[in-house]
Amino acid sequence: MSSMERNSSEKKRRALRIAISILVAVTLWLYVDYQKHPNVTRTFRDVPVEFSDEDTTLADKGYMLLSCENTTIDIRLKGSRSVISDLDRSSLRVVADTSSITETGTKTLSYQVYYPDSVSRNNVSVEWASAYTITVQVGELARKEVPIRCELEGEVAKGYTAGDAVLDPAVLELRGQRDDLASVSYAKIHLSVQNAEKTVIQALEFELYDYNDILVQNENIRAAVKLIQVTVPVRTVKEVPLRVEFREAPGSTLSQIEYTISPRTVELTGEKSVLEGIDSILLDTVYLQDITSSKSLHYTIPVPDGCTLPEGVEIATVTIVARDMAETTRTVTQIELENVPSGFSAALVTTSLEVTLHGTQNEIDAITGDDVRLTVDLSSVTEAGNYTLPANVFIGNYENVGAKGKYQVIVNVTKQN
I want to staple 364 with a disulfide (CB 3.0 to 4.6 A). Which of 254, 277, 325, 326 is the partner? Predict the structure, then answer.
């Protein structure tokens, strides 16, 4: 190894020894400082003073705070270095207790210092404060309710309309000295609806105005709430058709009727998101077997939730013109018993039944009771006795005739010996 390389290596070792020495010295200094001086102090300036129960318990007694000599205080706290170093002014709360106030005048209140949840009160103490009590002026509290005016700014999107604003609360309760409240006429909020395509909901700050529409700025007037929630519905219009669903049956088909709906369409007003899911409005389901002649049916138009119809549009009329539809009743004596359980015998108590038939005029005129038969299923019977059972209707050789209604027969079931 050359002499130059040896010198370079020696310099590096010397620098490393110096760095280690400095680190050990700092560590020892911190250890000694912590052991000899485990607690430190720190001054926090201009910590805001809060008042507990001012808007609740004190207001319920009919009093209010008019002024305060100390809106902020300076405090010097003592505690371990790790705790004190983690505190700042925003994490401290100085809260004065108003529960002792029982009359008007000048009052002296005690206060409590609150620390973050992570800090135990046992680990911190107040070594000094710029004030140890809070002096306040207390006066009688008066209340006044004023209306709230909402001014809309801007225009909603093209094709949309803004409805009336809904405010929560609807009126504003003010608290203060009677003379201060006397000049207040109303509160005002401003809401932008510029290019809105859906309902606008916002919580807004308000301003107070006097009877000459001049802004009132008085710190002694306080409101029961800080924000007013305003809801302005923004709606559009969609034209949707009215419709009727028809249920067909043999001899009762759509080819045998013509129908009209008046009005055919209606204009719905509502939220865009609601209207997008509405393609039509169903008035009714009509069973064509119930139609034997032309008739007009009147319906109250069902309005989907969240929508409105134009004023005066409430009723829709469905006019049905029937062609070649007829109805008759025939006496049926062909009643067949099926699936009689093994070990049992069955006999009809009901030997004939009147069945209503619906179909085209020609086939209705030609059909007789002999063309119709009933079948009764006894598979559900498990013991002897009389049973009232449903009967299925079958019509032979007539494609355009169907039975209306439901039918039952009485069957006597006996056990075989």
Answer: 326
Encoding tokens for residue 322?
A: 């029937």
The tokens 């973050």 sit on which residue? 116
Specify whether the backbone of 224 is left (phi greater than 0), alpha (psi in -120 to 50) or beta.
alpha
Q: Tell me whether residue 96 is exposed, middle or buried, using C-beta atoms within 10 angstroms of its C-beta: 0 to 12, 13 to 18, 19 or more.
A: buried
Closest CA to 387 of 355, 415, 417, 349: 349
pLDDT digits (tens, 9 = 90+) for 134-182: 999 999 999 999 999 999 999 999 999 999 999 999 999 999 999 999 9
Residues 6 or more apart whose CB falls under 8 angstroms from that of 60 comprise none
Amino acid at the residue 1: M
371 vs 333: CA distance, rounded Å: 10
Q: Which of 127, 137, 212, 140 is nearest to 175 (CA)?
A: 140
Q: Which amino acid is at 279?
A: D
Nearest one of 352, 351, 345, 353 to 412, comparing CA atoms: 345
d(CA 111, CA 128): 14
- Asked if 358 contacts 287 with a C-beta cutoff of 8 angstroms, the reply is no
- What are the tens digits of pLDDT across the range 265-278? 999 999 999 999 99
Compute the distance between CA of residue 334 and CA of residue 375 in angstroms, rounded to an integer. Answer: 8
111 Cβ partners below 8 Å, 6+ apart?
49, 94, 95, 96, 97, 133, 134
User: 221-239: string of b/e by CB count within 10 Å (b at 16+)?
Assistant: bbbeeeebebebbbbbebe
